[in-house]
Structures are given as C-alpha cells and as structure tokens.
Design brief:
The complex is a heterodimer of chains A (about 400) and B (about 450). By secondary structure, chain A is α/β, with parallel strands linked by helices. Chain A contains 16 helices and 15 strands. The chains are: A alpha/beta (about 400), B mainly alpha (about 450).
Chain lengths: ~400, ~450
C-alpha cells in the first residue's frame, strides 16, 4: 500500500514541477544569489591589467553626487568594472560572437594568421590641420634645425592582405600622403615601402597595436638615409625576453588565441649611454620588471612618460629631439648609437614648451615620429609646439 | 537604469526581491513603491519631486471626479478630467518637444515620460468613465504610476487592468517561475540578438547611404527591423516577467508581429499596449468606424499621425505616421478584398515589405536620407559591393537565427519541454542556464548599450 502511494505522489509532484516550472524560478534565484555572493566576496581591483585601464571604484556618497545623479551612474560602472571573472566573461562573449561569424570584436579586426588589428583611424580634420600648421610654424621658427617627420602606417595598412575579406578599412596610405603634402620646411620620410616589403614577417605584434622590434628595425633602415645618418650600427644582438605577451588588442577583443614574442635589439657597439626618465637616471632603456605585468610592451622605457633624455658616447655632435607616441619606445633602440643626446617628448603628457628644449639641448635634428592612428586623431601636439607667450595670448 | 545591465541583475533585482519577500503582506505594495521610486529617480533624482507631485495630483483628481460623479455633477467632473488631461499632455509636450528650446540646452527627459504619462491619462479616462473605481490608497496608485518593471518603457498598462490587482495580486512560486522564464528569454532577446544585430546596423548606417549597394541597403534595413523587434519585445518580455515575479499580470505586448498577413494585423501584434491605448482613448471616442467611410478615414489618419508624433517630432516620424495611416486606409478600402482572392503568402510578403520600408523612415535622421536609402534598396547603387559582402559574411548567421527567432515554434517547444515532466525538463533548465550565462558575458563586454524605445 505504502509503495504505490508514494510513487503516485512522486509522479504527481514531477508533473507539477514540470507543468509549472517553479524550478526555473528557484534556478534564477540561485543564479542571482551566487552572483551576489561572488560579487560581495571578490575584492575590488584598482586597475585592469588586461584592459590596461583604471577600474571604477565604489562611489563616494555625497550630496552633489546624489542630486546630480552621478552617484547612481557610478554604481552601475562600479558593478560592471568589478564584476568577478570579468576577463573570462569577455572571452566567452568573444567566442560566442566568433562562432556567429563575427569579423570584428570590441572594434578590432579579427584577421588571418591570428592577427588582431585596429581599424585605420578616421582623421580628426580640424585638429589635424592645426597640428600640421603648428609643425610648419615650428619648423619656420627653427630654420637651422633639420626637421623630419615620419608617420608609420599601422598593421591594417601594411598587412592589408591579412584583413578579413572585403573589410571596409579606410585607405591609410592616402591619409599619410596628404599629411606629407601639407608639410613645409619639414622633410617627410615614408616608411610604407620599407615595411610592406616585409609584410610577411612579424613586423607587428599579433595581439598588440605596436610594431615589433623587427618592424622598427626595417623602418630604421628605411629612415636612416633620410635622417642623414652615416656609419650607423646595423648589427644587433637579438634577445627574446618574453613569449607570453598578450597586448591591448587581445584584451579589447577578448581573443586570447596566441601570445607574442618580444625581442630586444641591442646594438653591437662600444657606445655607452645613460637615460633619464622622470628625473630618475638609469643605465638601460629596458625595464625587465614590466615583463611581469600584462602590458609587456612597457619593457621598452618602462612605458609612456612625458619626457625622456638620453646621453650617449656616440660623439656625432648631433642632438635629436623626437616628438613621439609609444611607437618610439621601441624605435629608440636603433637611434641610441646615432646621436650624442636624444630627448623624447610625448605631447600627450608633456606640458612644457618645446622651443626652450631646442635651445637648452643644442638640438640639431628634430623628428616627429608617430603611428598613423595616433597622429590622425591627436589633439595636443599643437599645444606643445606653440611658444608659451603665444598660447598665453590665445588664452587671454 | 536599464534591465539589461549587471547592476540591475545582480544588485537592484536581488535587493528588490529580498526586501519584497521579507515585508509583511500589508507593506509589500509600499515596499514596491519605494523601490519603484528609487528606480525612477536613478540617475535623474531631480525628477523625483515631479513624480511625487504627479502622483498626488492625479490621485486627488481621481478622487474628485468620483466624488463629483457621485453627487451627479457630471459637468464639473468633466472639467476636472479636461484640466488634468491638458496638464498631462502639456507636460509630455514640454519634455518631448519643447525641451530643446528652453535655454537653448536640451533638458534631459524624466525616465519613460512618454510611457508613464500615457498610463496616467488612461487612469483619468478610466475613472471618469467609471471603468474602475478611483484609488483610495495613494500607495497603490503610486505603484500604478511608477511600478519599476513598466515605468521606463511600458507596457502601457491601462488603469482598469491593473487596479483590481493591487489587493488581490498574490505571489506564488508558479508565477515566479513563469516570470523568471520570460525574464531570461527577454534578456536573451536583448543581449544576444538585439545588441549583436545592432553592431551590423550601426556600422552600416554610419556609412554614407550613397555608398551602399542594394544588398548593403537591405541588410541595413533588415538588421534594424530585427534589432528593433528583439530590443523592444525583449524589454517587454522582461517587464512582464518581472511584474509576474512580483505577482502582477500584464497583457502581452508583442504577438509575433512579423508573421502578420496584413498591415493592420501587424499593428494589432506590435506594441499592442500602445495600439490598444490609441484605439480605446482616441479612435473609439472619435467615433471609430461607425460614422461612415470618410469619418473612419479621418479618424484613422488622426490616430496614426498621433502615433507617429508620439515617437518623436522629426519630419521622419510624421511621415512614418502618415505612411501607416494611408496604408491602413488603403487596406481597409481596397487591398483586403484583393488579398482575399490571392494565396496567403502574398499578404505576408506585402506586409513585411511595408513594415521594413516603414522602419527606414523610422530610423533615418531625415526624409532625404530615408528616400536615398530606399532608392539604394531598389537598385540605385548597384546590386552588391565589397562592403555588403563583408557585412553579409559576418552577419548572415545572426540574421538567420533572428529570422527563426521570430517564429512561435520555440516558445511552443519550450512549453512542451516544461510539460514533459522529469524526462526532458532538465534540458530546458540547461537551456535557460546557458542563455543566462551568455547574457552575462554579453553584458560584461558591452557596458554602454541602451534600449532603443527608451528614447521615445
């Protein structure tokens, strides 16, 4: 008697669960509970090394933040940024969209041979015009100094063949050529050919938007005559220091299919140098500590800094000033044995004025070295190039 | 605050459920009201006093109308109604249309202003017409005005439908389960389909329409059609599901609209609560279709012009409203008889074509660009080019899944799995779990998406 009754009861219950699906409600509740607890017990992080940015922190409670609504919106970004397992979730989303046939992820082209590439930037026409004007004015003020400019085409331009089929990428060569055409008193050095001859080699990282030391090396060979260099060093010790580099494009897209190798090119020469970064003097331009971080490209110069000064024993009686972005961090390896003194200014972080640097350092050569994506969108170079009294007058 | 975001899912919702559960029955509505007010003022707390005033004003208007009617002074009740309605309409117009001119700087609209004013209007009409008694509990009424599942984007629940539920709504695990399933399905529609289809649409619509070939232009229009459907119906599913989790029942807002056999049928299946609102409070009071052909046409045009303007003031929305007015009149007069003689698929194809063309007006920034895009859809820019090949190659799977997801077979399948008892039931749980996990991944990767209908 007992047995069938219990069995009937169980089958009734099965049916009830089945029909009404209360279980899905409990299931959602359980998921929410797990999520809440996981969130509560995961300690907050300051920065995301994978995404290379600061993460939102727990918002401060205050009357203004409360009334203007920012208190509430910061809670939303705080939850999103500190969500546990964030990198894993982003990778899962990438996998799913790849499965659906996506050719881009997080605004990054998913290219052949595991290459990730930034789409060529659309020029900020207004800022670009002002920057070029400022460069021309700067060149006119310093007629005695040899002025050169090089805008390095990005991977999506040099390695066009690796882009997804039919990708509607902008023609970056045309943008670079129009920059070349607008310069006055500055010689434009084109490295497109020097790079594209080697488009089959690893001249760009597959997971990062920077060029590799090899790419910078080919560019240097192409640039050297234009820079008026003679007897420059072409023999380098090639030292692979990492095979686990996953760069910014990896984290933006969530694609972690491959890791890159970072190689250092150390000139085979007797020339010595020391380097000053943020008023700290060092004997090497490499910062091996950074290889432990996510952004291993910072092994070159320890990352971005407003001003870097290098003094060498090259004894060429030439002093170089470079206006630059992060592509120069790696390119500096090749410039080291060629100048007595090199100053690197990154206008994105450097707020001093450039004219005084020219006078103080006895600059003989100026190089504007940018990658195309940064230069086409740059909005700050003109401020660094404008003399202080003029920019003060403009402000008034 | 939007539903498809990690903060809502893992902070606001669990907190709301917990507070709702621990409250004794008498205080549950008050708790929901407090949560709804928090939801409403989230990000724009300056509008909280406005909302409180609106609740008080309508509550008193309702009571006054009821009292006046009880005393037999119908004319004065009518005055109260007209005053309140004019006030609401002016408020809506102020935020939607005039805000741009005040001080030269656009004022941010309160959350869901188009939706909650329509709800409040329905309250005024329903009480005046004695479809429902005026509320005597201001907490219940406040909940009707601001209930957080519906306040930002509807459904535009009519007062007469929600009023009986305040006292009698009951939390049951059965409802909670059904609500949870709707919520997960809605979330998936939004995050997995609408957001990803949006990548294709936004990429294509950012290109100059003159550069699009026919294949590209069609992809642009079709991806928008699917995206808008999954965006809005996904939101509605989430809203209805959430309401059900708290024991309330709202009518469905979408009923597989893309399967309609005629344009009028499409509008009975798309954003049903808005259509029902216009029918109930504009079309019928104007006389509906009972006063002769000419009058019917005028009424229809009025309704459709208002529907267009409700979405926005741009010339495109006006055109879009007129377009549907004309189509529906044509259908009533001529086409329905013609289609009756033709095989069924003709009507379906015709409807889909009309709807997709309609959406082109809906999403285009100006009539000029809408006509350009339409021209290119019909061959003005060649048949296919590299750009179109690229976007079709990257999105055809998604478009196919989207098209299939417009069919009712999936919910039927889900219901059958649910009902199959122990045998297949775990499979449905796995499916819901997988959807939820993919949604979390999608939300983590996409912190900035908003709902399309939130702008109307």
């Amino acid at each position: 008697m007992e047995q069938p009754k219990r069995a009937r009861k169980r089958s009734e219950r099965d049916q009830r669960w089945g029909e009404h699906g209360e279980i899905t409600g409990l299931f959602l509740l359980a998921c929410l509970l797990i999520g809440v607890l996981w969130n509560l017990f995961t300690p907050d992080k300051e920065t995301s090394s994978a995404e290379n940015r600061k993460l939102a922190q727990k918002p401060d409670f205050g009357l203004t933040a409360l009334t203007d609504g920012s208190y509430f919106s910061s809670w939303e970004s705080y939850t999103a940024d500190q969500f546990p397992g964030r990198d894993g979730w982003i990778t899962l989303d990438y996998r799913a969209s790849r499965l659906m046939g996506a050719k881009e992820a997080g605004g990054v082209y998913l290219c052949k041979d595991n290459y990730l590439m930034e789409p060529p930037a659309t020029p900020n026409e207004e800022a670009l015009g002002k920057n070029l004007q400022a460069i021309n004015d700067f060149a006119a003020r310093h007629g005695e100094v040899r002025m050169s400019m090089c805008v390095v085409p990005n991977a999506a331009c040099v390695m066009k063949k690796k882009l997804p089929k039919n990708a509607p990428a902008r023609d970056q060569r045309a943008d670079i050529q129009s920059i070349a055409g607008a310069l006055q008193g500055v010689q434009f050095l084109d490295v497109y050919d020097a790079l594209s001859e080697h488009a089959q080699e690893k001249i760009f990282y597959r997971t990062d938007h920077h060029w590799t030391s090899l790419g910078a090396y080919y560019a240097f060979l192409g640039l050297a005559p234009g820079l008026g260099l003679e007897n420059y060093v072409t023999d380098f010790d090639i030292l692979p220091v990492s095979n686990s580099f996953e760069g910014t494009l990896s984290s933006r897209s969530g694609c972690h299919a491959v890791a890159d190798v970072i190689e250092l090119y150390v000139a085979k020469t007797d020339i010595q140098y020391y380097i000053t970064v943020d008023s700290e003097r060092k004997s090497t331009m490499y910062d091996r500590e950074k290889l432990k971080d996510r952004d291993q490209y910072a092994v070159f110069l320890g990352g971005n800094s407003p001003r870097v000064d290098v003094t060498t024993t090259a004894d060429t009686e030439r002093n170089l000033l470079v206006f630059r972005d992060s592509y120069t961090n790696c390119f500096l390896q090749f410039l080291l044995p060629c100048f007595d003194h090199i100053t690197l200014l990154d206008p994105r972080y450097y707020y001093g004025d450039a004219d005084s640097v020219i006078n103080q350092q006895g600059i003989t050569d100026v190089l504007f070295l940018y990658n195309a994506n940064t230069f086409l969108e740059d909005k700050v170079l003109m401020e660094t190039l404008t003399p202080p009294q003029e920019s003060a007058a403009v402000q008034e | 605050m939007a539903f498809a975001n990690l903060f809502f899912l893992f902070v606001f919702l669990p907190m709301s459920l917990l507070l709702y559960f621990v409250m004794p029955w008498v205080a549950k509505n008050a708790m929901l009201l407090a949560l709804s007010l928090l939801f409403f003022s989230w990000g724009k707390p300056a509008y909280l006093p406005l909302m409180l005033l609106l609740i008080l004003f309508h509550y008193l208007s309702g009571l006054e109308m009821e009292a006046l009617k009880a005393r037999g002074s119908k004319r004065r009740a009518r005055m109260v109604l007209i005053t309140a309605v004019v006030f609401d309409v002016l408020l809506l117009c102020f935020f939607k249309y005039a805000a741009g001119f005040v001080g030269g700087k656009a004022l941010p609209s309160p959350l869901g202003v188009s939706f909650f004013t329509f709800s409040l209007l329905s309250f005024l009409f329903d009480v005046y017409r004695e479809k429902a008694p005026a509320p005597h509990n201001i907490i219940d009424f406040g909940l009707f005005a601001t209930f957080f599942p519906k306040v930002s984007m509807g459904p535009i629940v009519r007062y007469a439908d929600m009023a009986p539920q305040f006292k009698r709504h009951r939390f049951t695990w059965e409802k909670f389960g059904r609500g949870s399933r709707k919520f997960i399905v809605g979330l998936s529609k939004k995050v997995l389909l609408a957001n990803t289809l949006g990548d294709t649409f936004y990429a294509l619509s950012a290109l100059p329409p003159k550069g699009l070939s026919a294949c590209g232009a069609w992809l642009c229009a079709l991806s928008y059609s699917l995206m808008l459907y999954f965006d809005f119906s996904g939101y509605s599913d989430m809203a209805i599901g959430l309401a059900e989790m708290f024991g309330f029942r709202f009518e469905k807002n979408f009923n597989y609209p893309y399967l309609s056999g005629s344009v009028s049928e499409f509008w009975r299946r798309w954003h049903m609560s808005l259509g029902a609102w216009f029918k109930e409070y504009v079309y019928f009071p104007l006389g509906g279709s009972r006063q002769g052909t000419l009058h019917t046409c005028i009424n229809l045009m009025a309704v459709w012009l208002l529907t267009g303007i409700w979405h926005g003031t741009g010339a495109c929305f006006v055109l879009w409203g007129i377009y549907y007015g004309v189509l529906i009149i044509l259908e009533k007069m001529v086409l329905s008889k013609a289609f009756a003689k033709l095989p069924g698929f003709v009507g379906h194809l015709f409807t889909l074509l009309c709807v997709v063309v309609g959406w082109v007006f809906f999403f285009s920034p100006s009539p000029g660009s809408a006509f350009t895009l339409l021209g290119h859809m019909f061959g003005a820019g060649g048949f296919i080019d590299a750009t179109a090949r690229y976007y079709w190659a990257s999105s055809w799977r998604l478009m196919l899944i989207g098209a299939l997801a417009c069919l009712p077979v999936w919910s039927q399948l889900g219901r059958n799995l649910m009902a199959s008892g122990k045998k297949w039931f775990p499979l449905s749980l796995v499916a819901y779990g997988a959807l939820l996990i993919l949604c979390i991944a999608g939300m983590t990767n996409d912190t900035y998406s908003t709902f399309l209908y939130a702008q109307f």
